[in-house]
Every structure is written in structure tokens, then in C-alpha cells.
Amino acid sequence: MKFSTLQSIADVHTIIDQWNTLLEKSAICVPFLQYDYINSWWQTLGGGEWKQGELFVVTAHEDDKIIGIAPMFRTLDQAGEPVLMLLGSIEISDYLDIIVDPAHLSDFLSELLEYLNTFPMSEWVRLDWYNLLDNTPTLPALKLATERMGWEFNQEQCSPAPFISLPADWDSYLNILDKKQRHEIRRKIRRAEENIPASHWYFVEDEANLKNEMDDFLNLMAQDANKAIFLNETMRAQMHDIARVAFLGGWLQLAFLEFGGKKAAGYLSFDYANHIWVYNSGLNADFSQLSPGWVLLGYIIQWAIEHKRNCFDFMRGDEIYKYRFGAVDRFVVCASVRR
């Protein structure tokens, strides 16, 4: 393999097509690794999460074809040590990984570490790779490659990431729930539909309305005190751009539930790779007695089943409602390599 490091966005732009094509073949194909998402993240360093960072995208070629990408940036940790982190780290990108065909994974990681070792210690002392799914083949391959180098490898479980494997039809889905929860979902949907005014839900499909709809969604989010703090001016701009990128890519799923034309709940999700990835939500406290979040979530799950999606992924966080809708845990982890 021939390795090179891309350290300007102009250079990274030259591999857009190869980036996304390789991502489709990768064992972990998630929306947060889509090139346009990564590019959006880089413009604000994750909505201002990072104050500094230098691009450090490493590619591996065989016969002029890219077979592996380690999409990283270099920054300083709290102790002032230079570290290499995955682009997208940490806060707003639920799942991250390297981009490589599984057939080349082990060789790519082994040779990647050898290549990175050619850089002096002043360039980097540690890999800090956050938000790896616990079932990614990257973890055992990275551990093995690290041991071969005689370096230190650590793995830490960071957060649960509940998901639902979707069955073939709505009734089968309801049957995986316990009796009480099944009754609650049916009751709350029926109550919303019988309310005066009755509920109405929809996906945003008109690009001309996207900005205003996203403003409404962010305002719903901000009714939660913690989310209001999170949504500073830079983060709002970042969220708008993520929605724009996903819309143009055909994988945005921005849904609202209304009563009498007033938004009661919203979900921002990604419809990508035959999965629904639930990114964030917002609720209007004025409608809390109608359980709008539960109702809208029920509609979206039903839509996903009817449209033959395989998985409904709630992503990071252990909020109790996820488990009441039938989700089971997997976890995201952080892998650290010190040379």
C-alpha cells in the first residue's frame, strides 16, 4: 500500500467520489462518514466543539485506487499532547470509524500504524478514536496491529446506543413489546387522532421550506433547558447545514406532528443505508398531555416498517422511552493507541 496524508480541504475534495464509493463497501456505513457530512462538520469543527484542529486524512492506494481512508484531524488533548482523532469527534456524530473494504482492513491498519510511526512524536503521541460501534471489526484489528507494534491499546465503553431490528409488519412489531407498552402506543395514537383538532404528521419534502422548518425544529429542541444551552449560534448554524447536506443527499427525514397547524413534536432522523438513524427530537410543552413525542415516534416506526427499513437506530443515549419502544442495547466505545 502507498500511503499519503491530505492536510488541506482542497486536497480532500479531490477524493469525494472515491470516499463515498469506498464507504458503501465498508463494514460500518453510517451517515456520519458521508463525505458531505464530514465536510460540513469540518467547517465549524463540530459546531464549535473544537477550538483548533488540523486535517490529517490518511489514504492508502493500491494500483492508483484508494482502498482505505483514516479520516482524522490533529489537535491537543487536555494535557497538551498532540493526538489524532476521527473527523466528527465527539459530540454531534454518533458513530465514527475508518473507511475501508473489510477484505483490506487488517492490512490497512497494520500498515497505517507503521506509516504513522514515521511521523515524529511532536506530530502525535496517541490515537483517540471515539464513537466506534462495539461490533465494528476495526476494534479487534486495531488491537492486534497495536500489539504487533509493541504499543499500548485501551478500549473504553462510552455510551449505550439502543436500536430496534424491524420486523416485516406493524402487528409483528407491536407483538415484540410487552402488553402494557403495546396498549400505551395504541391508546396514545388513537387519542391524538380523535383529538379536536386531530393530529397531522408529515415529512419535510420541499427544499424551499427547509430553513424555516429547521428553525421550528430547533425552537422545539430549545424548549428543553439542556438542549437550549447546546444550541448556541454556531451549533444552530451547524445543525442547519447538516440538514441541508442530508436533504440534498436524499437521506434527511425531518418529521413533525401538528395539532391545528401548531407543531407539537419533531424528529430529525437520517434515512440512510436502509436504516433510520434518529438524530434528535423536540417537543412543545403546550401539548404534553397528548404525548406528541410518543405518537410521532410511533408513526415514524410504522412508516419505516412499511417501507422495508431493516433497523430503527436510536443512537447514543439511554433514555427510557427507547427501551419502551422495544430497543435493545449495543454500545459505542473509545479506542486509544499510545506509541
Task: Name the features.
339 residues, alpha+beta, Aminopeptidase, 2 domains, 6-stranded mixed sheet, 12 helices, 14 strands, elongated
Quick structural summary:
The protein has 339 residues and is an alpha+beta fold. The protein is 38% helix and 29% strand.
What this model shows, in words?
This protein is α+β, with helices and mostly antiparallel strands and 339 residues long. It folds into 2 domains: 2-159 and 333-338, Aminopeptidase (3-Layer(aba) Sandwich), CATH 3.40.630.30; 163-313, Aminopeptidase (3-Layer(aba) Sandwich), CATH 3.40.630. Helix content is 38%, strand content 29%. It is built from 12 helices and 14 strands. Strands 1, 2, 3, 4, 5, 6, 7 and 14 form an 8-stranded mixed β-sheet that branches. Helix 11 links the parallel strand 12 and strand 13. The longest helix has 17 residues, at 233-249. The two termini are 22 Å apart. The mean pLDDT is 96.
Write the topology of this structure.
Layout: E1 2-6, H1 9-13, H2 16-25, H3 35-48, E2 54-62, E3 65-76, E4 82-86, E5 99-100, H4 105-116, E6 126-133, H5 138-149, E7 152-160, E8 163-165, H6 170-175, H7 179-194, E9 199-203, H8 210-221, H9 225-230, H10 233-249, E10 252-259, E11 262-272, E12 275-283, H11 292-306, E13 311-313, H12 320-324, E14 331-338
Parallel strand pairs: 4-6, 12-13
Antiparallel strand pairs: 1-2, 2-3, 3-4, 3-5, 6-14, 7-14, 8-13, 9-10, 10-11, 11-12
Which regions have little confidence, pLDDT < 50, spanning 5+ residues? none
- Mean pLDDT, all residues: 96
Number of helices: 12
Structural class, judged by helices and strands?
Answer: alpha+beta
Number of DSSP strands?
Answer: 14
- The CATH class assignment of the largest domain is Alpha Beta
The CATH level-2 architecture of the largest domain is identified as 3-Layer(aba) Sandwich
Approximate shape = elongated
CA radius of gyration: 21 Å
CATH superfamily of the largest domain: Gcn5-related N-acetyltransferase (GNAT)
- Would you list the SSEs in sequence order as H and E? EHHHEEEEHEHEEHHEHHHEEEHEHE
User: What's the main sheet like?
Assistant: 8 strands, mixed
β-sheet strand percentage: 25-35%
CA(first)-CA(last) distance: 22 Å
CATH topology of the largest domain: Aminopeptidase
How many structural domains can be distinguished in the coordinates?
2
Helix content: 25-40%
